[in-house]
C-alpha cells in the first residue's frame, strides 16, 4: 500500500542537550489507523510536533503525501489535522465559528456543507451555536477533533486522545475515530494504553527513550508480546 507519510532518520536534540528522538524511520499507509505506543517522555509528542512543523528536527526528512514537510511546511501542514493533548480553543467562541475560523487559517474556501457534516458526525450538531466554555469535557474534546478536521486534512493526529477520560467516554472516542477512518482519513494516535492500541489500530509502533523499537501489524504484535510483557516494557 502507498505511504501517505514517510519519516526518515529523524532525530531531535533539544537545547538542553536532551536527545528526544534518535534516527526514527516510519512509513504510514494511506487509510490506516496507526498507534504510537510509549511511556511518558518517550518522544511521541516530539515526533508529532516535528511532522506538524511545530518543532524543527535536528536531522532527517519528512514527506507528507509527497511534500517535504521541512522545506514546504505549508503544503504539508494543510494535509494534516492535529488534535493536541490540551484543549486549546477560544472558550468564548461558538463551536461553528471556531471551525470556520480554523478552516480560514488554512486558506480554504468556505464550505458550510462540509463543516455541518463534521458537526453531525461528531454528534455536535445540536451544540453548534453553543460557546465552548458551556460544553462538557467530552464535548470539548470532540470540538478539538472538529476543529482539526475543519480544513479537510488527509491525516489526523490525535495526541493521547483519551488520556484522563472515563471508560464510557473512551469507548465513544474509539467509535468516533473508527468512523473517521471509514470515511478515508488516515489516523495516527499516541497512547499509553495497550488496550487502546489493541482496540483501534491496524499497526502499532512502540517508542521508548526516543527510539522506535518496533513497528508491527497489531495482531502480530499482540501475539509476539503478551499484555503483561508489554505492560512491563512500557514502564
Ligand atoms: P508524554 O507521554 O509524557 O506526553 P511523550 O512521549 O510525548 O511523553 P515528549 O513530550 O516528546 O514525550 O518528550 C520527550 C523528551 O523530550 C522528554 O524527556 C521531555 O522532557 C523532552 N522535551 C520535550 N519537549 C522539550 C523541550 N521543549 N525542551 C527540552 N526538552 C523537551
Structural class: alpha/beta
The small-molecule ligands in this entry are: adenosine-5'-triphosphate
Order of helices and strands: EEEHEEHEHHHEHEHEEHH
* Rg, alpha carbons: 17 Å
Into which percentage range does the β-strand content fall? 25-35%
Give the termini separation: 33 Å
Approximate helicity band = 25-40%
Strands ordered across the widest β-sheet: 6-7-8-3-9-10
Keywords: ATP-binding, Nucleotide-binding, Transport
Organism: Sphingomonas gei
GO molecular function: ATP binding; ATP hydrolysis activity
Protein name: ABC transporter ATP-binding protein
Short account of what is shown:
The chain is built from 9 helices and 10 strands.
Protein model, in words:
GO terms for molecular function: ATP binding; ATP hydrolysis activity. Residues 5-234 form the ABC transporter domain. The mean pLDDT is 91. The protein has nine helices and ten strands. It has helices at residues 44-51, 73-77, 95-105, 112-121, 137-149, 167-182, 194-200, 218-224, 227-234, and strands at 3-13, 19-29, 33-37, 59-64, 67-68, 80-83, 155-159, 186-191, 203-208, 211-217. The strands form two sheets. The protein has a six-stranded mixed beta sheet, with helices on both faces. A four-stranded antiparallel beta sheet has the order 2-1-4-5. A hairpin with a 2-residue loop joins β9 (203-208) and β10 (211-217). By secondary structure, it is an alpha/beta fold. The structure holds adenosine-5'-triphosphate (ATP). Residues 14, 16, 18, 20, 38, 40-46 line the site of adenosine-5'-triphosphate.
